[in-house]
Write a structure and sequence with these properties.
This protein has 389 residues and is α/β, with parallel strands linked by helices. It is built from 12 helices and 11 strands. Strands 3-2-4-7-1-8-11-10-9 form a 9-stranded mixed beta sheet, with helices on both faces. Strands 5-6 form a two-stranded antiparallel sheet. Helix 6 crosses helix 9. The longest helix is centred in the N-terminal third of the chain and has 16 residues. The radius of gyration is 19 Å and the shape is globular.
């Protein structure tokens, strides 16, 4: 029986992001993977675990083959945007148990370029099979599901559209500090509200951008940390949860599965939400940020509107900087964005974020961060708590 080992994030990286008209998804996977290995300063021969989803008929077999890897531990869990936090949890467990030395998580997508070139259309729904057959005929689009949940929160707790707009405004303020963000020009609440309606109550700026891009994260056992180029960031605890597929099976539109995954992650990490200094939260829509903040315990249920309205999410002057790179609302969103949350959280804990770096009162980088991904239409959640080395 192998004793459980500590697990560290040794390398993180993004591929070229934003607009990548001439790249393939496979190329973005490879670019992100190479950069993450270079970031860690480790040789690819150490990798014996591999996790990927969203590309190929036999994911992750096809991507591993493209990268020249022959892993003995694999994961292809696919639960939408929370995929990567769930995969990170599985990978950390595998490394801790001695089933793998180093696990590479990698993602790449040309979602924007594919639409632009006519290779695909915008995602209105995920199909009409299974439980979806009872919703799709009524025009219940993917965005409409989020919009309906947001409206329920507004009715239940008095949350205002201006408060939801503040999420977008503060994400853009953080993106303005990130030279790699797709959109950096500051916006106002009035500009958010006056935009074209997408799905009531969401106007365009309440919704994430569509981009190309990839990301990679390398997790290793503690004995390899001494060989790394960078300081380790430790996986302290994680949790995962699934809720529903059909909206009719969702007990409460104002409670996301992060209420479960977050509680488990914090309990297993032995920390309280109040100790977290940086939060990277999935934000395909402004409501996702607000309700996830509530469900992770940063404020009470129904208090999210007031919480975000006071500028708390900003890198500059915010009490709890959230989505410090600009998030999916402004930085990039190539599809299943959960892996980007982990990359940004690690970079913040290492103190590598330049102008957008979060700092404690003494000027040092933060010590604790959380990354929480959401999949589907609040169908699943994965939460990972990370600590600086």
């Amino acid at each position: 029986m192998v004793a459980r080992r500590k697990v560290a994030v040794a390398g993180v990286a993004l591929s070229d992001c934003g607009r990548a008209d001439d790249a393939t998804p496979y190329a973005l996977h490879a670019q992100a993977a190479r950069r993450a290995l270079a970031d860690a300063g480790l040789d690819r021969s150490l990798i014996d675990g591999f996790a990927s989803a969203g590309l190929g008929t036999l994911a992750p077999v096809e991507v591993a083959e493209y990268l020249g890897l022959r892993p003995t531990w694999v994961d292809s869990t696919s639960v939408g945007g929370s995929t990567w936090e769930v995969m990170a949890a599985h990978a950390a467990d595998a490394v801790a148990a001695g089933h793998a030395r180093a696990v590479l998580l990698v993602y790449g997508s040309t979602a924007r370029a594919d639409v632009r070139a006519g290779r695909r259309t915008g995602t209105l729904s995920f199909g009409a099979r299974g439980p979806m057959q009872f919703e799709v005929p009524y025009g219940h689009t993917l965005i409409a599901k989020y919009a309906m949940a947001a409206r329920r929160h507004m009715i239940e707790y008095g949350t205002t559209i201006e408060q939801l707009a503040e999420v977008a405004v503060q994400a853009r303020a953080n993106a303005a500090l990130n030279p790699e963000a797709m959109f950096r020009t500051p916006i106002t609440v009035d500009e958010v509200l006056s935009g074209p309606m997408i799905a009531d109550p969401f106007t365009k700026l309440h919704c994430c951008v569509r981009s190309d891009g990839g990301a990679a994260v390398l997790l290793v056992a503690e004995e390899y940390v001494r060989d790394c180029r960078t300081s380790p960031v430790w996986v302290l605890g994680s949790g995962e949860s699934v809720s529903h597929a059909a909206m009719s099976e969702w007990p409460d539109f104002t409670v996301s599965p992060a209420a479960v995954s977050g509680r488990l992650a914090f309990e297993r990490a032995g920390v309280r939400p109040a100790e977290i200094e940086v939060a990277e939260i999935y934000d395909a829509f402004t409501y996702m940020t607000l309700v996830t903040l509530e469900d992770l315990g940063f404020c009470g249920k129904g208090e999210g509107g007031a919480f975000v309205a006071k500028g708390r999410l900003r890198v500059e002057g915010g009490e709890l900087p959230v989505n410090t790179d600009g998030g999916g609302l402004s930085a990039q969103h190539p599809g299943m964005r959960g892996l980007f949350l982990l990359v940004e959280a690690v970079r913040q804990l290492r103190g590598e974020c330049g102008e957008r770096q979060v700092r404690r009162n003494d000027g040092s980088p933060p010590r604790l961060a959380v990354a929480s991904g959401t999949g589907g239409w609040f169908c699943s959640s994965g939460t990972v708590v990370l600590g600086a080395g």
